[in-house]
Amino acid sequence: MPSASFSSTRSYTRRTRRKGTNRLPIPSRTSNSGGVVEAGVTCEPLVAASGSYATPGGASTSTSFQHVPPYDLRGRKSPLHLHDASTAGFNATAPVHPTATRPTSPTASATASVLQSAATPPLSQPARKRLRRNTSCTITSSDNSNSAAHYLQCELPDEVMLTIFSYLYEQDLCRIAQVCKRFQAIANDNNLWKRLYQSVFEYDTPLFHTENCRFDFIPFEESEHHNPWKESFRQLKKRCLHVRPHYNGTAKDPVRKMPHFETIQASLDYADEHLNGGAKIFLHPGTYRGEFLVIDSDVTLIGAAPGVVADAVILERDSESTVMFVEGAKSAYLGHVTLKFTPNVTSTVPHHKHFCLEVGENCSPTIDHCIIRSSSVVGAAVCVSGAGANPRIHHCDVSDCENVGIYVTDHAQGTFEDNEICRNALAGVWVKNHANPVMRRNHIHHGRDVGIFTFDNGLGFFEANDIHNNRIAGFEVKAGANPSVVQCEIHHGQTGGIYVHENGLGQFIDNRIHSNNFAGVWITSNSNPTIRRNDIYNGHQGGVYIFGEGRGLIEHNNIYGNALAGIQIRTNSDPIVRHNKIHHGQHGGIYVHEKGAGLVEENEVYANTLAGVWITTGSTPVLRRNRIHSGKQVGVYFYDNGHGKLEDNDIFNHLYSGVQIRTGSNPIIKGNKIWGGQNGGVLVYNGGLGVLEQNEIFDNAMAGVWIKTDSNPTLKRNKIYDGRDGGICIFNGGKGNLEENEIFRNAQAGVLISTQSHPTLRRNRIFDGLAAGVEITNNATATLDSNQIFNNRFGGLCLASGVQPVVRCNKIYSNQDAVEKAVCNGQCLYKISSYTSFPMHDFYRCQTCNTTDRNAICVNCIKTCHAGHDVEFIRHDRFFCDCGAGTLNNQCQLQGEPTQDTDTLYDSAAPIESHTLMVN
């Protein structure tokens, strides 16, 4: 019988029957499967396979027998229809292991012969028109031959049929499936095909060739095919060759006529000579050493073994490259093998340009599910170089190499997806010289150097990679490189997360950068990357660190929980920091120092442990339209010659002052809202300067503006109001030029000047205060020129004893003079002051009651409560009455029950300074 084909056509030539009989004589034939068809055996045509046969007179004769199978096959999924099998491409010879043998006992041979006789009528007679098919078993004679065929076709138990079919090859099974529906169901048994499949390909799981250069293992239970083993056999069989180590010479399977080879190169040569490209070469278990494979055609090389395939199929070489793809390999495929490059380190043969896997110009192979190892201390495990080099490297393991893992250079491209790249001695990935790969979903970790290194104008698109636990940065950009890095996770680096330096560029977007030992992002030496929409958090140092004249656009990031500043700018760096959230840092929010600059705008800086923004040591940033709030210390802190501009910001709810300026710092603070502080609004001290212009400073727990210790700021056109203490307090030699400000509705004095201070107040409006308008005390002085002071509760201008300010052209009017009214009404001044306000009036002490200068007594208590005592006038000054407060031994007769003891406070509470410098 001719070799059976996987193409099962149902139309075949029928012999002309003899008149008066339906029987078709079957000549003696030899089966390809090893059986022999005995002479004289005849079998009636089977309606299920080929329909009824007409007699020469035109009549058809048939007799039906109904078969009841010993177990129900109807529950099975319907097998492929014969026509479906034909159109599905069963038209190739199927391979098998060359050592596989079939039983050749007489019984098996005869059975196989009868089966083939039933399946394949003689081909010498002319064909007649096929009549309508019937699904039942039909015979037209009752002689012994027909009875044997009928018994075999319809009565023999399924278990026996399965045993018989197990002796057949795939060609025979496809032919047998044409006989009848019963044979078709049995011949499509999964176990039959699994045994055949594994004898040829050795896989534990069906492998599907779903599209060009794509092979997928799909578990039996997940397959959409009724018989996945058969379908996989069909997909893999065409144009396939097999390579088996220690196989003696080139041969073919005697049944399947399938070439086998001992070396890979021999199979490649055969494919080039006989198959004209497109061959599938299956590499069976073993170690293939010494072959230098240069692939220049669209060949498929794929491992074939049980278990983890790549572990069993190893290609190894110790010089040049293990596998090289060159021009012509446009759709080549290499999969499920291990590649090793193991040069002898003592060898004198140079190998600095040799690699384990090399992809050259103008080729685009697919490398899939390979394990790649190189023990070379130079070069790289994988090298992709040259224009037009565009491989697809998927699901590979490039690990434990003694140099670089993957090296892409010289305008090469490529798609690298779902690879494991780890524990390499140098970078996991190098990209340089205008190379532009696409890398997605790779796992790059525990390298002894950097994770990914782009330099010398390297490009690349890096998406959804997991980069962690590398000894140096997770991602490094240098020397004009400009990668795009999106949706990656860069974390637990032993140094930093991202390092951009020496004119590096790059776009880093939507990444998670966290838990690195140093800064999450470093930018230095004139580099200018874009850092956008990243989560940068839990760093063991800072979030973003810009130094050494670095630049960059830092925008829309969420920066939080870092041990040092969320963003640090220093040494002439000048970035743009915009629309970020910088919060819950264990240190400060933004730290600008050592002549740092930059535009910092529209960020939200909040809930940081130290200052929201620090500006120091000659730095000049511009902060514009930021919301800086809810910090545990200062909002914005200028010190040690910190300069810059603070403009249109909203600064509120800080534990310390909203803004502090000290030690030579001279910022421009304009158009801000500074409010809700649990301390003061603005504190200028220790020689601080600055211009505060057009700000709104309100609702602070202490003074709106404090000026002290030789500081000399300029305040112009500010609104300072609704303070829970004074408006502006100037102490300890403070100066300042206050012009055209509106100071109103503050709980204590609108302006309090004390202790050798000497400010200038010009054209201010001070009104609606809950205490005095302007108070000058304790040897201070001032120049008051053209101010309006009106509608203040305790009076307009209140001067302590010995104070002689310069007063010109001021308008002081409509003040309530509540102190004088209380004195005239015989009230204790404590009644109108309590512990929070300090009215200015005559200050007495009682020698009889042994009070000190710290215990002040108002004039009415002296007259009433201390009548007949030895009393002494001290001075005209601001105080509250200790007698009325109940802190003296004698109970005040003008007040009610005594209250808790306290000392007279001459000034507002002392400002609380930031501890920023203590930890800097």
TrEMBL record:
Subcellular location(s) per record: Chromosome; Nucleus
Protein name (database record): F-box only protein 11
Lineage start: Eukaryota, Metazoa, Ecdysozoa, Arthropoda, Hexapoda
Chief place of localization: nucleus
Xref: InterPro entries: Beta_helix, Carb-bd_sugar_hydrolysis-dom, F-box-like_dom_sf, F-box_dom, FBXO11_UBR-box, Para_beta_helix_rpt-2, PbH1, Pectin_lyas_fold
Stretches the record annotates as Disordered: 1-37, 90-139
Protease keyword on record: no
Zinc finger (UBR-type): 826-897
Superkingdom as given in the UniProt entry: Eukaryota
Domain F-box: 150-196
GO molecular function, one term: zinc ion binding
SMART domains the UniProt entry points to: CASH, FBOX, PbH1, ZnF_UBR1
Boundaries of every UBR-type domain copy: 826-897
Oligomer and partners: Component of the SCF(FBXO11) complex consisting of CUL1, RBX1, SKP1 and FBXO11. Interacts with CIITA.
Keywords recorded for this protein, A-Z: Chromosome, Metal-binding, Nucleus, Repeat, Ubl conjugation pathway, Zinc, Zinc-finger
Keyword set includes Repeat: yes
Biased composition (Basic residues): 12-21
PROSITE patterns: FBOX, ZF_UBR
Protein source organism: Aphis gossypii (Cotton aphid)
Pathway annotation: Protein modification; protein ubiquitination
Composition skew (Low complexity), residue ranges: 1-11, 98-113
PANTHER family assigned: F-BOX ONLY PROTEIN, F-BOX ONLY PROTEIN 11
Record GO biological process: regulation of apoptotic process; ubiquitin-dependent protein catabolic process
GO annotation, cellular component aspect: chromosome; nucleus
Matches recorded under Pfam families: Beta_helix, F-box-like, zf-UBR
